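Hi W., the magnesium ion complex you wanted:
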Amino acid sequence: MTPLLSVRDIRKSFPGVKALDGVSLRLDPGEILAVVGENGAGKSTLMKIVAGVYTPDEGAFAIDGKPVAFAGVGDAMKLGIVLIHQELNLAENLSVAANIFLGRELVRVGSLGWLDDAAMTARSRDLLARVGLDVSPRALVGTLPPGQRQLVEIARALSLDARLIIMDEPTSSLTQKETDRLYKVIEDLRKQNVAILYISHRLAEVKRVADRVTVLRDGRNAGELARDEISHESLVRLMVGRDLRQFYPRRHAISEGTRTRLAVRDLTFAGGRDPVSFEVRAGEIVGMSGLVGAGRTELAEALFGLRAITGGVVRLDEAEVKTSGPPSSIAAGLLLVPEDRRKHGLVLSETIRDNLILPNLASLSILGWIVRSRVGRLCADLMSRLKVRASGPGQIVGQLSGGNQQKIVLGKWLARQPRVLILDEPTRGVDVGARSEIYGLMDQLAGQGVAILMISSDMEEVLGMSDRIIVLHEGRVAGELTRAQFNEEAVMKLATGG
Ligand SMILES: Nc1ncnc2c1ncn2[C@@H]1O[C@H](COP(=O)(O)OP(=O)(O)OP(=O)(O)O)[C@@H](O)[C@H]1O
Ligand SMILES: [Mg+2]
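Structure:
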């Protein structure tokens, strides 16, 4: 069979970084090839080359056996290649339908370029139904949570009648239910002989969807696994070059009678629904589960002072806190690592150093002067603890790979000895090696008495790291599970309102 795609010895460098150092791969029609590797291994760069976003410095690449060179995404699209970006790429101020048809709007027959809104809305409705997204085609994309935006991107790819769809971490902001839906979409696509390149850090997912896996390490091919060779262990070994033991390292199990650190009573806030009450004890990791749209991120934002609180009480170590905004929350020791790092967590145009310094100015300066040696030590310490892959602390954060950006967001707060740490999807897009580092850090912080509220849509992570799980459904606490009651079905049942 002539491969649909064949890529040979591709090289691509950015200033100071060799992103791809001779990568090869092939893909047959209708095949689902997973591409895995640590953060910064070069996965997204390779995908962007295949989709015509970047041109390679060297190497050959062919579609249907014919050599091609793309001058832009338009060329790739003409051959049926569509990329769903890792960092979503939608126009926030346009409607869902407008985004789906952006650049190739349907025009009313016989008119002089009048847009056929009715037709676009109707077709959008079909496409949205296919991906299981229940929103109006007229809704503004900017008002949708990340999980739903992801589904809009997928709907857009479906509308293009692609032969090869590249999905760069498609499920990183989807919940279990939406992920299952995506698997169905992928099955349908396979039946229609559409090939898929699938990038994911969730190894269970790779095992489930992939026909074959290619592993990248440091911009090179590290190995390949056929369907029946795919296992958690074999993947990890190829990716990080060693075994990872103790993946969920909870050494500091919480004991009975530990004092309450964060107490939330009948909290209501702008954009919220019913009053919410819960507690997190010192040294406890509470997992917060729920479907996309359950209101978890909104709750976190209210606690951090990003949303107006309209009623109820928040107590920190028994003292009532009146948040007037993030600065007062930070001063009180209540910190948030946000879900949307590109919007709230980082200054993308600044260096790693500046991003790390920003929230830590006080501890880095004496009498208002920044002490360079302290800055150097902080950067070196955080970058090595989190294994940040970058050319150095002077690299611009916007150029880092997705997972490495997430590590910088976390790093910012780790230097600050928080009392309460709210983590919203802390390992989204983070590779297995770094993930186990982050889990280790969380465990360490809990051991020091920090109360951690971990919002997560990653079921394994919630079950593996939490002392207790609170499940939100449509803006209220649907239930709570103690360790003895932990299992996937119980969480799902509460999350779906059952
Ligand atoms: N536009 C760019 N400018 C400079 N360096 C870049 C750029 N894009 C990527 N890089 C660098 O190239 C390397 C590979 O990045 P890439 O985004 O392909 O990794 P990845 O495998 O997708 O990682 P992740 O799992 O974190 O998404 C990284 O070191 C990254 O910092
Ligand atoms: Mg990537």
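The chain is about 35% helix and 25% strand.

W.
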